[in-house]
TrEMBL record:
The protein, known as: non-specific serine/threonine protein kinase
InterPro entries given in the database record: Kinase-like_dom_sf (IPR011009), Prot_kinase_dom (IPR000719), Protein_kinase_ATP_BS (IPR017441), Ser/Thr_kinase_AS (IPR008271)
Limits of the Protein kinase domain: 16-278
Compositional bias ranges of the Pro residues kind: 337-350
UniProt region (Disordered), positions on chain: 334-357
Alphabetical list of Pfam families matching this protein: Pkinase (PF00069)
Source taxon at top rank: Bacteria
Keyword match ATP-binding: yes
Matches recorded under PANTHER family: MITOGEN-ACTIVATED PROTEIN KINASE KINASE KINASE 20-RELATED, SERINE_THREONINE-PROTEIN KINASE NEKL-3
Length: 497
């Protein structure tokens, strides 16, 4: 067993009083200091004396600048100050998060599903905020999620972050939470790589282990990489984790980036749908510049005709207008379990914060009492039954009237999706309908690394991808479409080599 190294000497910082060691890292140590003016406890991250080469200094400076740019977010650690100590070591003065972080908690306690969902939505909001600023985190994992005094998750350690783009390096990445494309010989990655790592972190918090870790088995780096690249995601293994949440993790951690959620926002929306299905309060999104719904219920952009899985009320009756999944050429209603309205609660005074009383308390209650989920799950495409030649669904801006009355049970996804390649190079996919009903049809399309699939409707549980469209690995997605034009809440996806 490797001996634990001693912490480096804490630097003498004018205006600060050293308290104790908080943590040791490969390039830096973190100490607790007491700042004199304004008087508060802060975490000070100090580079190790032996790590002062130009590359490490540049990483350290990048971390300071990126975290300062993003630290207005309630789930990203705040940077107060950055400078160079008298002994020549650079240091960062950061918000001190006093509670146990996720790395300490997920191995030692069984964190309840409602709390994991709240953590997941808030972290997804933080990641989405970074992406909108053009920043990839590239090392999302439990050790980089601290907990504030008010119980909020706080993402930290942007030391290997980079601006978004097609090229990426893997320096410093943590294998258990890394997606396959970043572990390849020639790594490539984008926002969907952070989506994978975000979901892997949520998985770890639920399961009490890393996603591809075998308790008592061989968990060497080589074995982990092999499982990440080739093995299906194991079930979380908790009886209280709903299948809908497992499905969210499965999709977010798909091997191929094109099969994942396209954004952290979409992950947040999917987790909110799970909260709604479990009749839990909906965790609000913390995002800047969220577009509001225009008067009359129509959004002010092209997202207006897309179905939202849930709609969260905002002051004045406006609601968020972000798509929960990738844009598609056809808009299909995806029903969601919606909790019934709660009885009225006593009115709250205007201006009472909906969150902690610190900078995280800037949220104002949108409505009095419990969160009411907007009844938008019944919106469907009016012309879904009309097909263009060849079975391709004809797009339409005409929407059917929202359904009224009680919310029907969600339409399940097909299962047992399998593909078989024929001698001529074509691939035939088959699947099964777990709850066949009169009038059922199937909406399907071939997935691509870039762009959206062209969707088509078929009557049978079988489709064939021609040889000229089936070069290399072929992946498709399939949804069940009922006679009333409702469809699977989540399509099933599968590939054939």
């Amino acid at each position: 067993m490797t001996a634990r190294r001693e912490a480096s000497a804490p630097p003498d910082l004018p205006g600060y009083e050293y308290v104790r060691v908080l943590g040791l890292g490969g390039f830096a140590d973190v100490f607790l200091y007491r700042q004199h003016l304004p008087r508060r406890e802060v975490a000070v991250k100090v580079l190790l004396a032996g790590s002062l080469d130009d590359e490490v200094r540049e990483r350290f400076q990048t971390e300071a600048n990126l975290m300062a740019q993003l630290s207005h977010h309630p789930s990203i650690v705040t940077i107060h100050h950055a400078a160079i100590a008298a002994d020549g070591r650079p240091f960062l003065v950061m918000e001190y998060c006093s509670r146990a972080g996720l790395a300490e908690r997920y191995r030692s306690e069984r964190i309840p599903v409602p709390e994991v969902l709240r953590i997941g939505v808030r972290l997804a909001s933080a990641v989405e905020t970074a992406h909108r600023a053009g920043i990839l985190h590239r090392d999302i994992k439990p050790a980089n999620v601290l907990t504030t005094d008010f119980g909020w998750p706080a993402l930290t350690d942007f030391g290997i972050a980079a601006t978004t783009g097609p090229a990426v390096q893997t320096m410093g990445m943590s294998i258990p939470w890394s997606p396959p494309e970043l572990l390849a010989e020639h790594p490539t990655g984008d926002e969907r790589s952070d989506v994978y790592a975000l979901a892997a972190t949520i998985y770890s918090v639920l399961a009490g282990r890393t996603p591809f870790e075998l308790p008592g088995g061989n968990n060497s780096a080589q074995q982990l990489v092999a499982r990440i690249e080739r093995s299906p995601l194991p079930p979380v293994g908790r009886e209280d984790v709903p299948l809908q949440l497992q499905a969210v993790l499965d999709r977010a951690m798909a091997k191929h980036p094109s099969r994942r959620y396209s954004s952290a926002m979409a992950v947040a929306r999917a987790l909110q749908e799970v909260e709604a299905a479990l009749r839990l309060p909906i965790t609000p999104l913390d995002l800047p510049d969220e577009p509001a719904v225009a008067p009359g219920g129509a959004a002010g952009d092209e997202d207006a005709t897309r179905l939202r899985g849930i709609a969260l009320p905002a002051p004045g009756g406006a609601s968020d207008d972000e798509d929960a999944t990738r844009a598609r050429s056809v808009v299909v209603g995806r029903p969601t379990l919606v909790p019934p309205p709660a009885p009225p609660a006593p009115p709250r005074p205007v201006g009472v914060p909906d969150g902690p009383a610190s900078r995280r308390g800037a949220r104002v209650a949108a409505v009095a009492g419990a969160v009411v989920v907007a009844a938008v799950v019944g919106v469907l495409v009016a012309t879904l039954g009309d097909s263009a030649p060849g079975g391709t669904v004809a797009p339409s801006d005409e929407l059917a009237a929202p359904q009224t009355g009680s919310v029907a049970a969600p339409v399940p996804a097909p299962h047992s999706l399998e593909g078989t390649r024929a001698a001529d190079g074509s691939v035939t996919f088959t699947w099964q309908n777990p709850d066949p009903q009169d009038g059922d049809r199937y909406l399907w399309g071939v997935l691509a690394v870039t762009g959206d699939p062209t969707m088509a409707l078929v009557d049978e549980e079988r489709v064939t991808v021609p040889a000229d469209q089936a070069t290399g690995e072929v992946c498709i997605e399939v949804s069940i479409v009922r006679a009333d034009r409702s469809s699977s809440a989540r399509p099933v996806q599968g590939c054939a080599p």
